[in-house]
Amino acid sequence: MIEFRGVGKRFADGTDAVIDFSLVMPSHRVTVLVGSSGSGKTTILRMINRMVDATVGTVEIDGEDVATLEPVQLRRRIGYVMQSGGLLPHRRVLDNITTVPRLNGMGRAEADERGLSLMDTVGLDRTLARRYPHQLSGGQQQRVGVARGLAVDPNILLMDEPFGAVDPIVRADLQAELLRLQRDIGKTVVFVTHDIDEAFLLGDQVVILSTGGVIAQQGTPAEILANPASDFVADFVGADRGRRALRVVEQDGRRVVVDGDGRAAGVLTDDPAAR
Amino acid sequence: MNWVGANLDLVVELTLTHARLSIVPILVGFVVAVPLGVFAWRFRWARGVTLTVVGLLYTIPSLALFVLLPPIIGISFLSELNVTIALSIYAVALMTRSATEALESVDPAVRGAANAMGYSGWGRFWAVDLPLAGPVLLAGLRVVSVSTVSLVTVGVLVGSRNLGYLFMNGLQRGIVAEIATGIVMTVLIAVAFDLLLALVGRLAMPWTQGAGGGRRSRRVARRIALTEGPT
C-alpha cells in the first residue's frame, strides 16, 4: 500500500506542482492518476520512487516513509515504465531488461534466464533478445520497457504514460496485455495518463486530478460515471454525451445499447458470465 | 614519377615518421581532453572558464607556439618533443569542447530513465553517459586526427623531419613532383587514420550501426571544429 499524506511539491522556481495531496493506493490494485498537463500527475508518481522529493507531507510505502529510504536502493526495488520505453539505446534488448537485476548483483546467467522468461511474459519473441532498441517497433520497445519494469519482481510498478507514444491499435493491444498480465501478477500499479478511456479501462481506482494535484474525484470507473462529483469531472469524463451517454432501444425483440451519436454500442444481456 | 622512384626510401622514411609524430598528440588529446570535458560538463561553474581557456589555446598560431614552448619547458627548439607537445596542446584544445558537447548530446530522457532504474552518479556516468557520448566523441577525435596529421607538416620549420620537408625542399628546388608527393602522402595518412578510427568506433559501438546517429554526430563535431582553427 502506498499512502500520500498532505503532500506538496514546490519547485525551485516557486511554482506549486502539487498542493496538499492525500491518497491511499491499495496493494495489488491498479490506481490510475488521470488529468491534463499541469495536474501534477507525473510529479505525484515520481514522489513514490523519490525521483522528486516532496516539500511537505509524507509518502509511505507499507508504512515506511520513503524520505528515510536511500533513493538509489528504493528505485532498484520499484519497477518504472515510461513513455517510449525509456530504453538504453546502446544495450541489447536482453541487457536492457536485466539492467536492474544486474545492478543488484545478480549473476549474468541467472539474470539472462530471468530476462528471457520475462520476454515470454510480455509477449516478445526470444529471437529479439540480441537486437538493439532502435531495431524494434514502438510497441515492441514498450513491451521491453514493461519487461524491464518487472525484472526485479517488484511489489510496485510505476507507469508514466507508458502507451502514449504508440499508435491506437498497438496501444489497445498493450492495454489488453497489461490487463491480462495484471490478473496473473497482481502488482501494486500506479498508472499515469491523460486519456480518460485508458484510465477507465485499466483502473481499479481512478483518480481525476485538476491543476495542482487537487483530487476532483476518486473511485471506480462505475462510481465516477454514475455520480460525477462536479461539472469539471462530468465534462472530463464526458458522462453526458457521445460514447458514454448510452441508452437502450428495442430492436427485433432484443435490447440494443446505443450511444449519444446513435451508434450501436452492443446488446444488453442479463447473463453476468457473458464476457 | 621519376622523382618518386629515385627518392622512394626518403618518402617511406618521412611517411613513417610523419605517422609516428601524429599518433602521440592524437592519443594525448583524447586522454587529457575527455576528463577535462567531463569536468566542464559536470560542473556548470567550470564550463565557461575551461572552454574559454582551451578555445584561446587553439587560436595561438602554431609557429608562435613552437617558439614559445622551448624556453617555457626548457627544451631545445629543434627537439621533436617541441612539436609533439605543441600539437598535443591543439589536440586537447579541440577535443575538450567535443567531449563536453558529446556528453551534452546524451538524451535527457535516457539519463532520466537510468536514474529511475537506480543508477547512481558515477555508475551512471560509466554505464550510460560515457558510452552514449561515444559517437560524438569519436567524431571529434576524427577531426582531431585529420587536423593533427596536417599540422605536423608545419613542424619542418623547427627542424622536424616529416612530409612537410617535401613541401619546403620541393618549393626551394622547384620540383613539383616532390611537393605533390608530400601532399598525397599526408592525405593518405589522414585517410588511413580516419578509416582506422571509424573501424574502432564500429567495433566499440555496435549499436550505432544503421541507427543514423553517426552522421549527425560527425556534423556536430565538424561544426565545432570549423568555428576556430590555428594556422
Automatic annotation (TrEMBL), chain A:
Pfam families: ABC_tran. It comes from the Bacteria. Keywords: ATP-binding, Nucleotide-binding. GO terms for molecular function: ATP binding. SMART domains: AAA (SM00382). Residues 2-237 form the ABC transporter domain. This is ATP-binding cassette domain-containing protein. It comes from Occultella glacieicola.
From TrEMBL, chain B:
Residues 15-197 form the ABC transmembrane type-1 domain. It is a multi-pass membrane protein. CDD domains: TM_PBP2. Its main location: membrane. Keywords: Membrane, Transmembrane, Transmembrane helix, Transport. It is found in: Cell membrane; Membrane. The chain crosses the membrane at residues 20-41, 48-69, 136-159, 179-200. SUPFAM superfamilies: MetI-like (SSF161098). Pfam families: BPD_transp_1. PANTHER family: GLYCINE BETAINE/L-PROLINE TRANSPORT SYSTEM PERMEASE PROTEIN PROW, OSMOPROTECTANT IMPORT PERMEASE PROTEIN OSMW. Belongs to the binding-protein-dependent transport system permease family. This is ABC transporter permease. It comes from Occultella glacieicola.
